[in-house]
Amino acid sequence: MTSRIIAVDPFDLIVFGGSGDLTYRKLLPALYHRHRDGQLPEDALIIGVSRRQMSPEDYREATRKALVEHVPADERDDAGIDTFLKRLSYLAVDASSDQGWEQLQAALKGREDRIRAFYLAVAPELFGIICGKLGSYALVTPQSRIIIEKPIGHDLASAQAVNDAVGVVFEESQIYRIDHYLGKETVQNLMALRFANLLLEPLWNAAHIDHVQITVAETLGVEGRGAYYDHAGAIRDIVQNHMIQLLCLIAMEPPARLDADGVRDEKLKVLRALKPIDEATAGLHTVRGQYRSGAIDGKSVTDYLSEVENKASRTETFVAIKAEIANWRWAGVPFYLRTGKRLSARMSEIVVAYKAVPHSIFEASAGNIERNMLVIRIQPEEGVKLWLMIKDPGPGGMRLRYVPLDMTFAEAFSARNPDAYERLLLDVIRGNQTLFMRRDEVEAAWRWIDPIAEAWSRSNDAPKPYTSGTWGPTASVALIERDGRTWHEDID
Length: 492
Ligand code: BG6
Prior knowledge:
- 36% of the residues lie in helices and 22% in strands.
- The chain has helices at residues 21-36, 56-70, 78-86, 101-108, 125-136, 156-169, 185-195, 226-251, 260-273, 279-285, 409-412, 420-430, 439-458, 474-481; strands at residues 11-16, 45-50, 88-92, 115-120, 144-149, 175-178, 209-217, 286-296, 299-301, 318-323, 335-340, 347-354, 373-379, 383-391, 400-408, 464-468.
- Helix 1 (21-36) crosses helix 2, helix 1 crosses helix 12 and helix 5 runs parallel beside helix 6 (156-169).
- The chain binds 6-O-phosphono-beta-D-glucopyranose (BG6).
- 6-O-phosphono-beta-D-glucopyranose is lined by residues 218, 220, 237, 348.
């Protein structure tokens, strides 16, 4: 199947934090890909903005370097890069003073009819300040929208403050809170799997599903982001957003339509049904860890504490949680979440583990009947495997065998898998908020996270140490094995 390229309407994109890591590593490569596929209108303008003094020529050169570094060689060409760079401009603007704002006004003058998107790839402390300036310099047009990156706040109160500050200048329908996991191909596929097939839905409930596992494992450490990460930890960096979003997509009721509020209303109901975990239950339902030195892919790596300023830091780099959803569909079905940095492999997946068959008609000699399992691999090697029992082929009587129905997408489809930011950026231009978090969703997620984080900070226990290159502290194995279950390992 070939991919479909649908051009978007004319737009101007203004990226605050235009010379930052996210912009060079993700946003500009994503825009380049869309440009190369012919999806951006002729006169779409991209303006990088940051405090740093730099000429537009220097910015284009820095962008060229970033593209060479972050776009695979077989997906770029010099001519394409040259035409892409022509769209780019740069302005030095200081969020906290008046410097540069009039120049930004002048750059956008006469372009009020076009879609105008402001991307805030900056620290959340600046969201309110920048929005205030956009308002006071009359830069917000009816066709304007704003994109903000997670983390939206540090807890419920600060998230509300951020949302209030942004809300003074932008309507909720203009605000795009990005969670890049929602733009990943396989995460999209979760919705297709669940709602474009009859096969799964009748069994998608507590009567047939034993438990669900969600793993987001990374081999990377904090990679120079220590100052941010040490303040956030895995619970705020990954669980509050990416993992909770995945949980919502698995657990939500079918929306009536695949539109922004249809989907977000259903996700919100899941968030509200999450059983609270507090000081009394955190010890049993959560595990946090922090990496020590070790080896990953044969290379030795240092411990977390030598990468951050606070040498006595208790920030977690690993979290495992047994979450429960108190509603009719999911009562009694644990959702085991685990995420960590410096783990044994980079791997994100969702495992839906079904219950055992009620009765076996087979002799013991046929072998064990394993439980069916649906494994949705988000990355790498995106795909879906449905593990089933079959008869071992050939003579020798009835012997049972556990095999996957394997749909690894790279093998099944030859199309390039677009990066999440490609889809999400263009959804902003199209005005489609389905894959973005609504204010009430973000705040409901914090309502569940805050008591966990508070219980941890009040507890005397430090995070459990784990060796880099392993699957985290042994306590996370105990968390699931205590219930007679095990973390899924690829047995292929
Ligand atoms: C980001 C986190 O949101 O997601 C990072 O801030 C993390 O710490 C990253 O490394 C993981 O994203 P991906 O797409 O590589 O799984």
